UniProtKB/TrEMBL annotation:
This is Probable 3-isopropylmalate dehydrogenase. PROSITE patterns: IDH_IMDH (PS00470). It comes from Plesiocystis pacifica SIR-1. Its cofactor is Mg(2+); Mn(2+). The keyword Metal-binding applies. SMART domains: Iso_dh. It holds the Pfam family Iso_dh. Transmembrane segments: none annotated. Residues 1-359 form the Isopropylmalate dehydrogenase-like domain. Gene3D superfamilies: Isopropylmalate Dehydrogenase (3.40.718.10).
Length: 368
C-alpha cells in the first residue's frame, strides 16, 4: 500500500489532482491490538463515503499456533470486515481480475525464471461473482459435546446475483472491444459445472438469456475442471470469462501464473455505486516487514481504481494518471533492472520500495 500511494501521489501532483486519503487500519494485527474489532467502528462510514477504496491485504498468523489466521470471537478471519464485509455491505458484486502478461515478465517455474507464455497472447479478464456462492456466510458447524463433528457450507446462487455479474461481463467485453488474442473475436466464456451443480445450471441459463442481448459477442461455456487446462495451454482463446465465487477464486490464482505470479495480479470489487481495488494476494506474512515483496499488484490496483473513477466521473485527467502508471510499469518491467525476487530471483532482486520509486519516477516522466 505504501508503494501504491507513493505512485498515486507522484502522478497526481503534476496533474493537479488532490486526494483526501483516509487511512483505515484493519486486519489480524489490528484485531490482536484492539481485542474486539478487525477495523475501527467508523470504518464502514469512511468506506461508504469514499470515491475509491484501496485495500492492502489482510490476514495474520494466529499466535496460538493453530497454523491458520487470527480468528475473531465469531470464528471469522480477522480482516473479514474490510474484505468480505465491504463486498457484501456495498454489494460489490463483480470481482474483476485482468490477466495481462506484460512484455519482459518472466515466469517462476521449477524455481527458475523463464519466458513461457508470450506477452500479447495473455490478455483476458476473469470476473468472479463476489457476494454469494460457497462464501455466503450461511453455513455452520455442529459440535455436540463442544467438539466440531459436522461442517456445512451452503452454496447460494441467486438469479439476481447471476444477472448482475453476467451483465457486467458482457458490458465489459463490449467496452474493452479487444477480443481474444487468438482470433480477435469478442467472446464471453461462462465457467461452470452445469453437468453436476444446480447453481451452475441457473448460472448457465441466465448467461444465455442475458447473452441474447449481445448478438455481436460470442457465447462460450467451459466446465471448470477442463477450463483450468485450457487456461494454461491456450490462454489466447479467452477474452472475458465469468464465473461463480469459489471457482473464480481458484482459477484466478492459477491465472496469475500466466502474468508472472501473485505479485502482478489485481482484483477490482465493483458495484453500482462503489468500488474497491486490491492485489489478489494475501498478506504473505512470512515476508512481512522485509521490504521484499512485489508492489506491482498494488500499484496496478491503483491504476485500475483510477480507470474506474475516470469513467464514473467522466474525468480525462484521471485517465491520464492511470495511463502514466501503466506505461511506467511496462517501462520498468521491460528494462528489467529494478524488479523484486519473484520476477528475477534473489540474486538480482531489488527491494519493494526501490521498485515503487522506479515506477513513480517513470510515471512522472511519462507525464512530462
Ligand atoms: N484479500 C486479502 O486480503 C487476502 C487474500 C488472500 C489471503 N489472505 C490472507 O493472507 C494470509 C496469507 O495467505 P496465503 O499465504 O495463503 O497467501 P498470500 O497471497 O499472502 O501468499 C502466498 C505466497 O504468494 C507469494 N506472494 C504473495 N504476495 C506477493 C507479492 N506481493 N510479491 C511476491 N510474492 C507474493 C508469496 O510467495 C507468498 O508466500 C492469510 O491470513 C490469508 O487468509 C488475505
Amino acid at each position: 500500500m505504501r508503494e501504491g500511494l507513493k505512485v498515486l501521489h507522484a502522478v497526481s501532483e503534476p496533474l493537479g489532482i488532490e486526494w483526501a486519503i483516509e487511512d483505515v487500519p484493519c486486519g489480524g494485527q489490528y484485531y490482536l491490538e484492539q481485542g474486539d474489532l478487525d477495523w475501527p467502528s467508523d470504518a464502514p462510514q469512511k468506506c461508504d463515503a469514499a470515491d475509491l477504496i484501496l485495500l492492502g491485504a489482510v490476514g495474520w498468523p494466529d499466535p496460538a499456533g493453530t497454523g491458520g489466521p487470527v480468528l475473531m470471537k465469531d470464528n471469522k478471519m480477522a480482516g473479514f470486515s474490510p474484505v468480505i464485509g465491504n463486498r457484501m455491505r456495498l454489494n460489490l458484486y463483480a470481482n474483476v481480475r485482468p490477466i495481462k502478461l506484460y512484455p519482459g515478465v518472466q515466469h517462476r517455474i521449477h524455481g527458475g525464471h523463464k519466458q513461457i507464455w508470450e506477452a500479447g497472447k495473455v490478455d483476458m479478464v476473469i470476473i468472479r461473482e463476489n457476494t454469494e456462492g460457497l462464501y455466503a456466510p450461511t453455513g455452520g458447524k455442529l459440535a455436540p459435546g463442544g467438539k466440531a463433528d459436522v461442517a456445512i457450507d451452503t452454496r447460494v446462487i441467486t438469479r439476481r446475483a447471476c444477472e448482475q455479474v453476467i451483465r457486467h461481463a458482457f458490458e465489459l467485453c463490449k467496452r474493452r472491444n479487444k477480443g481474444a488474442p487468438k482470433d480477435g473475436k469478442l467472446r464471453v466464456t461462462a465457467i461452470i459445472k452445469d453437468n453436476v451443480l444446480h447453481g451452475c445450471q441457473l448460472f448457465r441459463d441466465v448467461f444465455f438469456e442475458i447473452g441474447a442481448e449481445y448478438p455481436e459477442i460470442e457465447k462460450d461455456t467451459a466446465i471448470v475442471d477442463a477450463f483450468t487446462q485450457w487456461l494454461v495451454g491456450q490462454p489466447e482463446y479467452y477474452d472475458v470469462c465469468v464465473t461463480s465465487n469459489m471457482f473464480g477464486d481458484i482459477v484466478t490464482d492459477l491465472a496469475s501464473t500466466l502474468q508472472g505470479g501473485m505479485g502482478m495480479a489485481v482484483g477490482g470489487n465493483i458495484g453500482k455505486h462503489n468500488a474497491m481495488f486490491e492485489p489478489i494476494h494475501g498478506s504473505a506474512p512470512k515476508h512481512a516487514g522485509k521490504d521484499k515483496v512485489n508492489p506491482i499488484a498494488m500499484i496496478l490496483s491503483v491504476k485500475e481504481g483510477l480507470e474506474w473513477l475516470a469513467a464514473r466521473k467522466d474525468d480525462a485527467t484521471l485517465t491520464k494518471a492511470a495511463e502514466a502508471i501503466e506505461a511506467a510499469v511496462v517501462e520498468v518491467l521491460e528494462k528489467g533492472e529494478t524488479l523484486t525476487y519473484d520476477l528475477v530471483g534473489n540474486d538480482r532482486a531489488s527491494k519493494c520500495s526501490e521498485v515503487g520509486s522506479a515506477i513513480a519516477e517513470a510515471a512522472v516522466r511519462k507525464l512530462g
